[in-house]
Amino acid sequence: MPGGGGGPADRPGGRGGARSWPVGAPRPLVVRGWAPPASPYGPGHRGVDLAAPPGTPVRAAAAGRVTFAGRVAGRGVLVISLTDTGDPPLRTTYEPVRPLVDKGAEVTAGQVVATVDTGPSHCAAGCLHWGLLRGTRYLNPLSLLPPRILRRPPSRLLPVFGVPLP
After folding, report:
1. Across the strands, what pairs with 132?
2. What is the per-residue pLDDT for 44?
3. Does pTM top 0.90 for this prediction?
4. C-alpha pair distances (Å), 21 with each of 6, 48, 66, 164
5. Does residue 134 lie within any of the structural domains?
6. What is the count of structural domains for the chain?
């Protein structure tokens, strides 16, 4: 399972109930992975980009309360503080989106909370940027998902024909 950062306080673990991918079924393509910066203001990628064209429904990855639903720098952003994840609570972020829920709304894991919006995006075919924070520290959002969801099917080797034996 991809790491979520330092010690146990940074690992979302088994608390907080059900967890799910915010887009795609059964598993979206991860266009760009998490690459934490070396310093708070350094270069890096503070989340993961999941392939999702505009109009794709976005689901809450876990249960919580919407703490922000609006625009930041011209992009639609949704932030959900997750239930039973410690103090300060974990927060998931989704962008660019068109929120379908208001600030203060309680949401459940898997509930449609937004749609991927058109607008500025660093993914040519469209994507959802999914982030995770505890306080001001960014964590790997893939650490929210249980290992059974993250597993890929086993690789299958195909026979190779026409290669001479050594």
Report:
1. 92, 139
2. 80
3. no
4. 23, 12, 17, 45
5. yes
6. 1
